[in-house]
């Protein structure tokens, strides 16, 4: 993959640009004169032209292209915009005030195939309703259909969704490795760091003592996920913390798994009271109980997305560390296929 190109003889400016590129997780190709830049002009994903070399670059009449920036320390200089136009740049970046913006531009340049991933949140209407199982099965079904999928465990006290998948020993980063990160996370680096199984990547917790996820960490992960994945499935805690709220605000749809009995409905109504404050499209996935499906959905006041029948063998399968069969002819596989079709349709 080609790297961003910098054209400058200003060593102090170059030092800053190298540092900014490192913060974006990339390195630079450097040309100290326009002639040295010519072989890279059409190949570099982004070109940063130092104000000191702008006139020299313009004199070579380089081909018109996008993703060209003029970088200067003197934005107030009245000659800056003339240089911007002359070199064919689309924007002026003034340092140090635009440093964070330049970090994002460098990072964007190294993600040449941006995706537009959807976020689906799953939350239990009561404990043990099966939200984590549904989250895992949705992610498995999506990845089986070759959607690049990120399964995010947002429940610090849930026991670890990697363990649910029988992958608690898999090598790779967990939340504890990411919570200290601020700002942008490179989507490719995130995918490479996490435990992955085919098209499925999993972000869970380390074993032992766990801490709450900062909202900023969840924001950075989901922003990277939306650039690098087709789908993110977030398994939420029932008691919403700042990170869960961050995920809800980004959700295309939130599924509430509710048991169709009196306590299950009453508990789910309580959960919905908080969930509705942060997201709009909420749908029920109903577990069987003494209340029929239509009455349960009516009591909840949200549309039903489907029914999740009891699966007597599912718990035993998961406890053996085996993955459930999710073929289109299985009940669970058919449900997940239907949910994904409905939730991901334009």
From TrEMBL:
<feature type="domain" description="Rv3660c-like CheY-like N-terminal">
    <location>
        <begin position="7"/>
        <end position="115"/>
    </location>
</feature>
<dbReference type="InterPro" id="IPR027417">
    <property type="entry name" value="P-loop_NTPase"/>
</dbReference>
<dbReference type="InterPro" id="IPR050625">
    <property type="entry name" value="ParA/MinD_ATPase"/>
</dbReference>
<dbReference type="InterPro" id="IPR022521">
    <property type="entry name" value="Rv3660c"/>
</dbReference>
<protein>
    <submittedName>
        <fullName>Septum site-determining protein Ssd</fullName>
    </submittedName>
</protein>
<dbReference type="Pfam" id="PF06564">
    <property type="entry name" value="CBP_BcsQ"/>
</dbReference>
<dbReference type="InterPro" id="IPR017746">
    <property type="entry name" value="Cellulose_synthase_operon_BcsQ"/>
</dbReference>
<dbReference type="Pfam" id="PF26563">
    <property type="entry name" value="Rv3660c_N"/>
</dbReference>
<dbReference type="InterPro" id="IPR059050">
    <property type="entry name" value="Rv3660c_N"/>
</dbReference>
């Amino acid at each position: 993959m080609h790297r961003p190109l910098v054209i400058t003889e200003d060593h102090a400016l170059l030092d800053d640009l190298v540092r900014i590129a490192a913060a974006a997780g990339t390195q630079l190709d450097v040309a100290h004169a326009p002639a040295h830049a010519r072989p890279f002009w059409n190949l570099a994903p982004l070109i940063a032209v130092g104000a000191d070399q702008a006139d020299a670059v313009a004199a070579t009449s380089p081909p018109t292209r996008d993703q060209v920036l003029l970088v200067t320390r003197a934005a107030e200089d009245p000659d800056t915009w003339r240089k911007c136009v002359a070199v064919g740049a689309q924007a002026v970046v003034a340092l140090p005030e635009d440093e964070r913006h330049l970090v994002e531009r460098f990072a964007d340049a190294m993600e040449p195939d941006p995706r537009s991933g959807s976020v689906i949140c799953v939350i239990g209407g009561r404990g043990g309703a099966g939200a984590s199982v549904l989250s895992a099965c949705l992610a498995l079904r999506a990845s089986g259909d070759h959607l690049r999928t990120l399964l995010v465990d947002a429940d610090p006290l849930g026991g670890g969704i990697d363990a649910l998948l029988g992958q608690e020993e898999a090598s790779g980063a967990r939340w504890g490795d990411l919570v200290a990160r601020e700002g942008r996370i490179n989507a490719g680096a995130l995918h490479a760091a996490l435990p992955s199984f085919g098209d499925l990547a999993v972000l869970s917790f380390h074993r032992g003592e766990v801490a709450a996820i900062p909202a900023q960490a969840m924001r950075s992960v989901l922003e990277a996920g939306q650039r690098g994945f087709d789908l993110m499935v977030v398994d939420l805690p029932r008691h919403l913390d700042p990170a869960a709220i961050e995920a809800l605000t980004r959700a295309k749809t939130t599924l509430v798994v509710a048991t169709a009995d009196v306590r299950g409905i009453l508990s789910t109504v309580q959960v919905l009271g908080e969930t509705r404050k942060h997201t709009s499209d909420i749908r029920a996935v109903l577990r069987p109980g003494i209340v029929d499906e239509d009455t349960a959905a009516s009591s909840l006041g949200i549309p039903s997305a489907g029914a999740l029948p009891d699966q007597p063998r599912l718990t035993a399968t998961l406890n053996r560390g085996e993955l459930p069969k999710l073929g289109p002819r299985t009940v669970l596989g058919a449900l997940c296929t239907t949910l994904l079709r409905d939730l991901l349709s334009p």
